[in-house]
């Protein structure tokens, strides 16, 4: 089974047209692989404490995935640290918004830099190597 509520966003793995991830209002981050069937490969329950609005897969490091949430935070996941049963947690949680995060996007030019936008009217630029 996939999501149990509205799916908010989907992103493909930069190196594979068969792998993608999705987030939704059920607070789950789900990784899929079309080569292995219809069931999720990894389903992270409670990836955040609220609905997830956005996800982005790092174009320079396919192990790193960002999620943005209605809990005003951004989480960085390393898929090498997640198990098929969904056990695992974010390797870092970024707090810099006072409202739901609506968009996260990795820089195409740097492995560690990404941007986030939220309902607070802010656009933040982050470098996870400097936190």
Automatic annotation (TrEMBL):
Highest taxon in the source lineage: Eukaryota
InterPro entries associated with the record: WD40/YVTN_repeat-like_dom_sf, WD40_repeat_dom_sf, WD40_rpt, WD_repeat_RBAP46/RBAP48/MSI1
Classification via PROSITE patterns: WD_REPEATS_2, WD_REPEATS_REGION
Swiss-Prot/TrEMBL keywords: Repeat, WD repeat
WD repeats: from-to residues: 1-33, 45-78, 94-131
Pfam families tied to this protein: WD40
Protein name: XY1
Organism of this sequence: Schiedea globosa
């Amino acid at each position: 089974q996939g999501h149990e509520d509205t799916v908010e966003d989907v992103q493909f793995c930069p190196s594979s047209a068969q792998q993608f991830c999705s987030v939704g209002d059920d607070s789950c981050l789900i990784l899929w692989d079309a080569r292995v069937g219809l069931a999720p490969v990894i389903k992270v329950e409670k990836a955040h404490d609220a609905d997830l609005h956005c996800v982005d897969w790092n174009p320079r490091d396919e192990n790193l995935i960002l999620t943005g949430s209605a809990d005003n935070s951004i989480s960085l996941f390393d898929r090498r640290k997640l198990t098929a049963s969904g056990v695992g947690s974010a390797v870092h949680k970024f707090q810099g918004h006072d409202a739901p995060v609506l968009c996260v996007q990795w820089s195409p030019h740097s492995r560690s830099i990404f941007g986030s936008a939220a309902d607070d009217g802010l656009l933040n630029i982050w470098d996870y190597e400097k936190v």
